[in-house]
């Protein structure tokens, strides 16, 4: 699974890019977690480009399509013949080169914070310190189910984005402390995303 098999830097690169992004700042929210909830509630869909970087500075690029609740697709480019797809209930990582698929419940993934209809942020999330008031960092981890991992979300405050927040990227950390960082750009919110985006061809098992 690409999200638990690739070690990556923590969120500093995402935050650094966000600080230089030139996005307009908005007023500090009195309740940042409520602002994140408002952002999620106002986000029906999103498309973006992404860069996934590991601890050795190796990167994979691709395109992201998201449709709340529960649907997401990471299509990897650059000759990486693989997909990560969420169909509403299940996340599946498909590696076509080796003919293998791994699947697990979305609720058991850190990505459930982004994909769940109403994530319980007051229970599982807290705001991290940020040197720049334009940047909101939120760490989410279910202490009742630590094996599901942690996600640290990076937002830039922007009056033109849903709920006043633009999602810049995130870091996921699994139970073995393996980390994956995703940096987004060209984010487009509440655009048309076809249901076919969350379908995939079953891999053919290699002999």
Task: Considering the chains and any ligands shown, give keywords for the structure.
207 residues; eleven-stranded antiparallel beta sheet; outer membrane lipoprotein receptor (LolB), chain A; mainly beta; single chain
Number of helices: 5
Which consecutive residue ranges, at least 5 long each, have pLDDT under 50?
Answer: 1-29
Fourth-level CATH superfamily: Lipoprotein localisation LolA/LolB/LppX
Please provide the ordered H/E string of secondary-structure elements. Answer: HHHEEEEEEHHEEEEE
Give the C-alpha Rg: 16 Å
> Any idea what the CATH architecture is?
Clam
Percentage of helical residues?
10-25%
Q: What's the CATH C level?
A: Mainly Beta
| Terminal-residue CA separation | 21 Å
Order of adjacent strands in the largest pleated sheet: 6-5-4-3-2-1-11-10-9-8-7
- Number of beta-strand segments: 11
Number of structural domains? 1
Helix/strand-derived class? Answer: mainly beta
Q: Overall 3D geometry?
A: globular
Description:
The protein is mainly β and 207 residues long. Helix content is 15%, strand content 39%. The chain contains five helices and eleven strands, in the order H-H-H-E-E-E-E-E-E-H-H-E-E-E-E-E. It starts with a helix and ends in an 18-residue tail after the last strand.
Short note summarizing the structure:
The chain is mainly beta. The protein has five helices and eleven strands.
Secondary structure blueprint with pairings:
Blueprint: H1 2-5, H2 12-19, H3 32-42, E1 45-53, E2 59-67, E3 71-76, E4 82-87, E5 90-95, E6 100-105, H4 112-115, H5 121-124, E7 125-128, E8 135-141, E9 150-157, E10 165-173, E11 179-189
């Amino acid at each position: 699974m690409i999200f638990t098999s690739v070690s990556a830097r923590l969120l500093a690169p995402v935050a650094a890019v966000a600080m230089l992004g030139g996005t307009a700042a908005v007023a500090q929210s009195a309740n940042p977690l409520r602002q994140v909830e408002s952002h999620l509630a106002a986000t029906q869909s999103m498309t973006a480009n992404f860069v996934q970087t590991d601890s050795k500075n190796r990167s994979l690029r691709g395109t992201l399509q998201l449709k709340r609740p529960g649907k997401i697709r990471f299509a990897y480019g650059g000759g990486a013949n693989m997909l990560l797809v969420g169909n509403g209930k299940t996340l599946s990582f498909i590696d076509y080169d080796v003919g293998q698929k791994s699947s697990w419940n979305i609720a058991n993934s850190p990505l459930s914070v982004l994909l769940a209809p109403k994530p319980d942020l007051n229970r599982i999330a807290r705001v991290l310190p940020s040197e720049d008031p334009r940047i909101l960092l939120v760490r989410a981890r279910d202490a009742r189910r630590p094996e599901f991992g942690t996600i640290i979300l990076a937002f830039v405050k922007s009056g033109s984005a849903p709920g006043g927040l633009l999602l810049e990227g995130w870091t996921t950390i699994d139970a073995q402390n393996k980390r994956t960082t995703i940096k987004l750009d060209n984010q487009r919110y509440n655009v048309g995303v076809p249901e076919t985006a969350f379908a995939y061809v079953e891999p053919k098992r290699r002999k």
